[in-house]
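lol so apparently i was supposed to do this last week
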Amino acid sequence: MKLKLQFKTLLTASLSVFVAGLAAPASAQAPFPDHPISMIVPFAAGGPTDAVARMISIPMGKALGQTVLVENVVGAGGTIGATKAARAAPNGYTIFLHHMGMSTAPALYKKLAFDPLKDFEYIAQVVDVPMTLLARKDFPANNLTELQAYLKTNKDKVSLANAGLGAVSHLCGLMFMSQIGVELTTVPYKGTGPAMNDLLGGQVDLLCDQTTQTVPMIKEGRVKVFGATTLKRLSSLPNVPTLDEQGLKGFEVKVWHGMYAPKGTPKPILDKITAALQTAMQDPMVKQRLADLSSEVVPMDKMNGPSLKTHLEAEIAKWGPVIKKAGVYAD
Ligand code: ASP
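anyway here it is w/ aspartic acid bound
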């Protein structure tokens, strides 16, 4: 969407800046933050990344003394939101919450409009969230063995939802298909919030998604679950076996999440935001809610910008060759 500025509006805006400049000495800048902050989330509202953002935006806002508004900028597996965040004014009023898709995008997209290692400042790593493999409630198979048997003869009838190339649901789906040696029709959404709606409605069959969305669905019996993507069973779902223990050896996906700001955001502002994030992540309600969803808050001594940057570099180096070898990419 292009912003159209009328000449008159522009003139009025320039005049008010001029008048404000006359009234206040150049050094008297308003303390940060003096108006609401936008937290860009690159997936649809109602999904698991959005859930984390909304959970922490309120205590972060309290710590900063300003509202933190979640803004869903969706599409292309998270890369549209990342591009918008990279291009936003570096003044602290735009921050960006993304998951490990930040590290897979450079290998998945031949043309990427942002560089995860050059276009951002690093606020902190936030939380690690496992995934679960699900099916619609009335899917014919009841466990992983039955699912594998069913897919052998019915794969053309089965669809696997994801949140686009670069989404962790996509990555998890690819790992699943490659481990069982079956290729399914995939259906991309703008987030796994809408994908989950279609799974509940029976329009798609399978979905691999973070526990920040799936634990309540599983507990309420609204979906079928085949396994968790961890090597140990999830504390919140002790009766759900891991995919690994059922024979998909080494099937492990823990979705790490990081918070960023556009490159050039001043250090004192970044420090304030980092401190607010740390306060939010120690909020007993946030901690309890995340623990109930089998998610692990990053230890406080690692919840900082330099640790996030080191982690991102290592993850880019890890995923690049894997993705190249798999030959999956967008032109
Ligand atoms: N779970 C999604 C993914 O697959 C994103 C989301 O909607 O939060 O990356």
